[in-house]
Amino acid sequence: MKLNQRVFLWSLTSSLAGFLFGFDTVVISGAEKAIQSLWALGDFQHGLALSAALWGTVVGSLVGGWPTDKFGRKNTLLWIGILYLVSAIWSGLATGMNSFMLARFIGGLGVGISTVAAPLYISEISPPEQRGTLTGMFQFNIVFGILVAFASNYLIGSWVTENAWRWMLAVESLPALIFTAMCFQLPASPRWLIAIRKDRSAGVTVLKQLRPEASEADIQQTVDEIVASVRAESDTTPAEPFWSRRLFTPISIAFLVAFFNQLSGINAILYFSPRIFELAGMGEQTALLKSIGIGVTNLIFTFVGLYLIDRLGRRTLLLIGSVGYVLSLGTCAYAFQSETFAIVPACIFAFIAAHAMGQGAVIWVLISEVFPNEHRAAGQALGSFTHWIFAAILTLVFPSVVDHFQPSMIFGFFCFMMILQGLWVFTMLPETKGISLEQMEAKLGIRN
């Protein structure tokens, strides 16, 4: 099926929220040691300062479903760009720990809300056959943002001698401004217009833009399916709550895929990759340069994941990723235990490759497609909140954990959690590729 250029452009625009997500998440890795030294932070204060953005992300993901439903996916994406812009400028100008934490918290709000609104918007405008690839562009841009942040930190660290960390953080304002401007040309989501706003005619107009080759009868059939799915949800009770037995399957999928995503150790390793390489005996600049290698590896294997997600399916990629996780993390634990430090970079790169092909490519696609229309924003918020609350906790405690536990024990723990993920995927997770959002309810056994 030929990809509609408008669908691609609008999906790409929305997915650029992921670029800012990735950049904002990792840019702190080049500045964290300078901040600790400048403000003489202890381990707990250091962890608290670094996790400020993540706590903003937790709040943003928790409340993100409300503006996404209330004001629409497009308007929410627009305000996400403004939050990123304010945060970047303020972070670069911060005069103390409290000011810095507040600025990073605001950026975190943007990250959290973006993980609700952006994948959901792309999922709702994409044809079923291409939904995995298009929604996966959000993850690709996260990875691209991570790579650009690593490279930006390296270049600024090499060229700027005074207050380099301020420039590392402030430079994010440029892509934030570009993203905000691009959001003005987005249309509203047709499923939001029809299912939430109850504006059938406006939804039909957008659907015709998304599917110009479709007949009037095909468009009306799609609209009728959306209306029928909402009516089926509302006919069971006057207003069926989100936390219901009927939605147990999608709720458990959203929670567990997000939970295991973070218990792989991915964010801890990304945030502190220079420090991990230094633990393996490398110099500071060498460690920072190898962190760029992480970004390149992530980008390459995210391409592979996006190519395969609509071919092999979500479940298969998660199984492949689980095997890669276990082998790479287990070998990394052995390398630190036996002091075979030379293989640590290869282990970390293999871990990143497994993540990019598996969890990285799948998480936002899977969460965005398993909930019915009326509860999709709340379901996306649940998955995002689960993802970020565990990310925040891990980032808060990781500096202290590194000081009190051997790296082999830390990587061994992450390896064990990925064994559990593999068992869950193999025994319980259904495949969702190539199924329309309205037909997904029957696939998951939640249609009344």
UniProtKB/TrEMBL annotation:
Any Gene Ontology CC annotation: plasma membrane
Membrane-related topology note: Multi-pass membrane protein
Pfam (any one): Sugar_tr
Ranges annotated as spanning the membrane: 7-28, 48-65, 77-95, 101-122, 134-155, 167-188, 251-272, 292-309, 316-336, 342-367, 379-402, 408-429
Keyword terms, alphabetized: Cell membrane, Membrane, Transmembrane, Transmembrane helix, Transport
Entry keyword Nucleotidyltransferase: no
Molecular function GO labels: transmembrane transporter activity
Domain Major facilitator superfamily (MFS) profile residues, every copy: 10-433
Subcellular location: Cell membrane
InterPro entries xrefs: MFS_dom, MFS_sugar_transport-like, MFS_trans_sf, Myo-inositol_Transporter, Sugar/inositol_transpt, Sugar_transporter_CS, XylE-like
Family that this chain belongs to: Belongs to the major facilitator superfamily. Sugar transporter (TC 2.A.1.1) family.
Protein name (database record): Sugar and carbohydrate transporter
Taxonomic source organism: Rhodopirellula islandica
